[in-house]
Amino acid sequence: MPQPQPVHATLVCVALPSLTVSSETGQLTGQGLDGCYRDGRRVLARCEVRAAGGEPLVVQGRLVAADRARFTGVIRRSGERGPDPEIRMERLRFADGTERITFHSSATRPVRLPVEIHLGTDLADLGAVAVGLPGPELRAAVHGSGLRWSGRGAHAALTASPAPQDALASAGLLRWELDLPPGGRRTIELQPRLEYDTGGPQTPTGRVGRVTVPGPRTGATGPRARNERPPRSWSAARLECDDQRADALMAGSLDDLHGLLMRDPALPADVFVAGGFPWRCGLAPAEALWTARMLLPLGTRLAASTLRTLARTQQATPGADFGRIPGPLRDAGPHAPPGCTGIEATLLFPAVLAEARRWGLPDQETERLLPAAERCLQWLRTATDPRGGGRGGYLPDPAPDGPYRCETQAHAHRVAVLGADLLDACGSPGAAALRDWAAELRARFRTDFWLEGRTGGRPAALLTDDGRPVPHLGAGAAHLLDTGLSGGGTFAPGLLDAPQTDQLARLLRGPAIDTGWGLRGLGAKEGGYNPFGHRSGAVRVHETAVAVAGLAVAGHEAAAGALARGLLDAAESFGHRLPEMFAGEQRTTHAVPVPHPAACRPAAVAAAGAVHVLIALAGLRPDVPARTVAVRPLGNAPLGAMQLTGLTLAEQPFAVRISRLGMGMVEEAADGLQLGS
Q1: CATH: 2.60.260.20, 2.70.98.40, 1.10.1900.20, 3.40.140.10. Which one for 11-212?
Q2: For position 300, what pLDDT does the model report?
Q3: What's the pTM value of the predicted model, to 2 decimals?
Q4: Which pLDDT score is estimated for 490?
């Protein structure tokens, strides 16, 4: 039975479209996800080193950056006396599969060290390997100073330097006799590569036998060496905090995001951040936009290139879907049918553009992207028109007749308000109609979606197609707090009124939703709750990040700070590299969070969410067109004093310091930028 292969106990080096996966021993055994991948194809499945007749004893294996890992081991030779090994081995492995294996000798006499490397591959698709459906190992042939494998429309080759003294193709074996002088060292370098019969990756079929498998694809990006990776599309931000775990989380998250950065095959100058390994190693529209939005304090370049990439995918055929950005369906848990990520991306597009303008996106770039944003807004008005079958102006997701999800209405309301600001600023018509529509939505939503109760009530998760509210509560309700950055250093009005917002904040901080490490996707008291349910109980980092920022804006600083500290505690147990989601079990004294077996790691929205939480504590509210910026940090300073440097505002460096008393001070800013109240 296909099932997800273990990810969280492995070391994953990522520099898409290349990545390698191995255990902490460094040996690629061909088991599970082990291997070197390129363009979604396993180029190398086995790479097992033996020296002096046995396997090295690996004493440490760790990531030194998102795209490389280092393994340190020792080699015992027959006849050695005492506990101290004389031969040390270091393996430095890169995401593209290049590997340098260095043997160091501390012996007082010359040593001849026999080394064997066992190699093999199946050229299987990553999607098949990720669910435990690898292909048969291919037969190797000697090729130059290495080996070569052919099959499934592609060829994998491995070149070794120095050339081996012996190569046995039938066993996939390369051999060396290395002469190590006293105190000297010798290095073997391995370089795998992938070639196609037709010059590029093939379109995946999506099936292995009768089993449908996910298709994590990086696309036909063409060859890319380590030094040809896309440049970072954000500034070199740095955090110095009293709680030094926050510094490590910021650095690790940005490093992971750089590993997931990809070029658009249609226009390689444009880049975006892929969804995550192993399930979404390519463009995931909603996640790419969420990532770009959360990284706006680090500059607008990523947002601009992501928006340009998605604008090229926008529906251009006249009809009900005109202006919509396509995206796959996504499971929504036991109480609702799957939701559409394309709808989420379509609603995010104008909002990201409007907020990027507040952070300093140049006017010419805004004008270039404005037509695509206008088409998204046009699609919103068409989809919510009651005459077209919609219910009372609510946005259905995904079917034309519902259901009507609360978070979808929150996204729609936010984009209507921010889109109206954007149209006004650019002198385009339609802003007044959008504001009127948003006001009507607020009035209806506060009645139709709010379920009164003796304890203060709660928002409904969704309305069915016949208008019946479904009352279950989970972390998705946090999107009702995400109002978006509007003009004048303020935030757009939310769908809930002040008392309802206060009640939602209390619910989110209750033990039914808050695990102590983050918010459950479904409350623990709700029917269908499952701590490992990826939409019915697991903690999703992205939703907790949205809640932290929303609670801070709404004035619930204690709740925001507690959630931020809990997420930081969870990150520490994951080596400051958060998975996409983890089990929603209640925190206890000696417990640690458990990763979800199907979670991506690294994951774009988790890494960007961690950055979003840390920067949200500073309370930055820019309005570059008005040449102002407000700094309103949390007064309780939940992580102590902090200093953020290397941010970008108005395309210039920006730095801010927050004291232990919650006082903010701008230390660096663009000329002419005024500090708002």
Answers
A1: 2.70.98.40
A2: 98
A3: 0.93
A4: 82
Token pair of 4, please?
């997800």
328-346 residues labelled b (16+ CB within 10 A) or e (exposed): eebebbbbbeebbbbbbbb
Residue 209's CB: how many other CB atoms inside 10 A? 9
Q: Give the per-residue pLDDT at 466.
A: 87
CB 291 within 8 A of CB 21: no
pLDDT for the residue 221? 36
Task: List residues bridging with 468 in a β-sheet.
Answer: none
Question: In whole angstroms, how far apart are CA 469 and each of 90, 478, 628?
Answer: 60, 18, 42
Instruction: Give the whole-angstrom CA distance, residue 302 versus residue 361.
Output: 11
The answer to whether 177 and 149 have CB atoms below 8 angstroms apart is no
Give the containing element (helix H, strand E) for 220: none
Residues 434, 438, 444, 445: is their CA dihedral positive or negative?
positive
Picking from 567, 570, 3, 5, the residue whose alpha carbon sits closest to that of residue 277 is 5
Those residues with Cβ within 8 angstroms of residue 179's Cβ, 6 or more apart along the chain or in another chain: 110, 111, 112, 113, 186
φ, ψ of residue 327 to 5 degrees: the values are -170, 155
Instruction: Please give the pLDDT value at position 220.
Output: 36
Q: What is the model's pLDDT at position 388?
A: 54
Tokens matching residue 589: 């004294």
Counting as low any pLDDT under 50, the low residues of the chain are 203-227
Angle at which helix 604-616 crosses helix 244-259, to 10 degrees, equals 140
What tokens does 636 get?
């309780």
Query: Strand locations in 406-551, DSSP E?
Result: 450-451, 458-459, 462-463, 469-470, 539-540
- Where helices occur in 426-573 by DSSP H, the ranges are 431-448, 498-508, 541-553, 557-573
Determine whether 100 is exposed, middle or buried from the number of CB atoms within 10 Å of its CB (0-12, 13-18, 19+): middle
SS3 638: coil
207 has which bridge partners? 212
What does the block give as tokens for 410?
A: 């929150």
CA atoms within 13 Å, Cβ hemisphere of 505: 24
Which class is 241-668 in CATH?
mainly alpha
Q: Is the dihedral of CA 549, 553, 554, 558 positive or negative?
A: positive
Task: Provide the residue type at 643 as one letter.
Answer: Q
Amino acid identity of residue 151, one-letter, is G
Closest to 168 in 3D by CA, of 119, 231, 204: 119
- Helix (H), strand (E) counts: the chain: 12, 37
| Selection from 543, 524, 404, 539 nearest residue 481 by Cα | 543
The long-range contacts involving 388-392, CB below 8 angstroms and separated by at least 24 positions, are: 388/320, 391/463, 391/465, 391/467, 392/444, 392/448
Start-end ranges of CATH 1.50.10.10 in the chain?
Answer: 241-668
Q: Where in the chain is the domain with CATH 2.70.98.40?
A: 11-212
pLDDT at 216: 36
Res 391: pLDDT = 63
Q: What is the dihedral of CA 505, 509, 514, 519, to 10 degrees?
A: 20
What is the pLDDT at residue 215? 35
Which stretches of 509-556 are DSSP H helices? 541-553
What's the Cα-to-Cα distance from 307 to each of 310, 371, 458, 540, 564, rounded to whole Å?
Answer: 5, 12, 35, 25, 29
